[in-house]
Amino acid sequence: MYMKNGDYGRAIPLIERARSLAPKDKQCPPLVTISLIFGWSFNEPDIVAQQQLCETLYSEERAAEAVEILLNIIGTSDDEILRSKSTADWITDCTKKCVTTVEHVGDNASGSAALSIGPQSPAGLFIRRSKTRAANGLWEDALQDANMAVKMEPSNPLGYKTKHMALHGAKRYGEAIDAFKSMLQVIEQSNDLAIRQLRKNYISPSETIRVIDLTVRDILKNCPLVVIHVTSGCL
Per-residue DSSP letters for 63-103? Predict the structure, then answer.
């Protein structure tokens, strides 16, 4: 009723209340049994409530909060729900609306850095929120968003680049190198010429190691041999 009358301020707490009534454990046997017998979905009420909350926040010009709900829907929903045409169409439409109005996105509770949204895709939103969280030192949260971006658009090198940044910030250097290698592979195998041209901006880890080895060898050629006593450590 409040939604129809345009009273979004009163609608928001009611929608949040409806969302809290959704079952927390969607895998518990009783719900699974009932779902199999009657064909009922216990995921749908939660999704609908979140969608209504997202649209209401957007209508209230609280677009940054609407984006948070949108990303939460994408991040917590199972693949079957995300593949459904109604949900996919809603996500596409909501994303397009949000990217035209939101000036910043991220975890407001931790003080997000202001940034503009470019790519009109959910993966683009995850990438930009990941960068925002990384700027605030929230490396694990940034990594979670980067992984979602990679999952949604595995052919987008920016997802892997953001993942590399998050892993490096978390001091998980081995995994960061793997993410960097994956980014280079995606760039090299892309059908988009503009993306393939990005390859010239990066040096592969193997090439970096080769250059370092050559530099070390050149230095050793001009250095006198030094014998160190392995027990005392003295020359």
Answer: HHHHHHHHHHHHHHS-HHHHHSHHHHHHHHHHHHHHHTT-S
Secondary structure (DSSP) of 136-177 = TT-HHHHHHHHHHHHHH-TT-HHHHHHHHHHHHHTT-HHHHH
CB 155 within 8 A of CB 185: no
Query: What is the signed CA dihedral for 157, 163, 166, 170, rounded to 10 degrees?
Result: -140
For residue range 78-93, list pLDDT tens digits in order: 777 777 787 788 888 8
Return d(Cα 44, Cα 23) in angstroms, integer: 11
Highest mean pLDDT out of 6-20, 23-37, 51-65: 51-65
User: CA nearest 139: which of 130, 127, 147?
Assistant: 130
3-state DSSP percent of the chain in helix, strand and coil, to 5: 70, 0, 30
Helices and strands in the chain, H and E counts: 13, 0
